[in-house]
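About this split. The held-out portion is used to measure sequence recovery: a designer receives only the structure tokens and must propose an amino acid at every position. Recovery is the fraction of positions where the proposal matches the reference. Here is one held-out target exactly as it appears in the evaluation file.
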């Protein structure tokens, strides 16, 4: 199945000059969603994964499904003030500003094998911040998986030394 058929370009979103890759059409089609989950599962075949860590909010769509398929725990990464327990914090740069991410302090146990998942790898700032959070918590990053990789933004440059996969490259 060609998953690229389910990705919609939205010009000038969230601001002028940015061509946003909208995954909503993929989520609307249960067969395409199932195929994406199957492909994500294949990417970690033979690897031991204790936790799947996914970023707010679109990373949650596949992150929870992947965790369920792998029999792993799911760890949400959120923006400040969204998690109700004590948190670890990490600031990061976006392609259009700065922000901060948090995880619960008890979400990852020392030595946990962690799969990091998000919908899009752009500049790599968000993923780099999550890697730092996972490692600060004592987890081992096994790999990072993305639905889309915007290769022209060179996000992999911030993630050197890590195993990085994507289902679709632009």
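Reference sequence for scoring:
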């Amino acid at each position: 199945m060609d998953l690229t058929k389910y990705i919609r370009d939205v010009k000038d979103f969230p601001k002028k000059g940015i061509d946003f890759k909208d995954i909503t059409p993929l989520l609307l089609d249960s067969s395409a969603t199932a195929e994406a989950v199957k492909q994500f599962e294949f990417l970690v075949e033979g690897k031991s994964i204790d936790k799947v860590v996914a970023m707010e909010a679109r990373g949650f769509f596949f992150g929870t499904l992947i965790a369920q398929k792998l029999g792993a725990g799911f760890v949400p990464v959120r923006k400040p003030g969204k998690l109700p327990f004590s948190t670890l914090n990490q600031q990061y740069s976006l392609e259009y500003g700065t922000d901060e991410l948090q995880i619960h302090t008890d979400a990852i146990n020392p030595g946990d094998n962690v799969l990091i998942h998000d919908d899009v790898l752009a500049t790599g700032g968000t993923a780099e911040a999550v890697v730092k959070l996972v490692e600060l918590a004592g987890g081992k990053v096994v790999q990072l998986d993305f639905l889309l990789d915007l290769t022209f933004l060179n996000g992999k440059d911030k993630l050197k030394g890590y195993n990085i996969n994507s289902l679709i490259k632009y």
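Annotator remark: DSSP finds four helices and nine strands in the chain.
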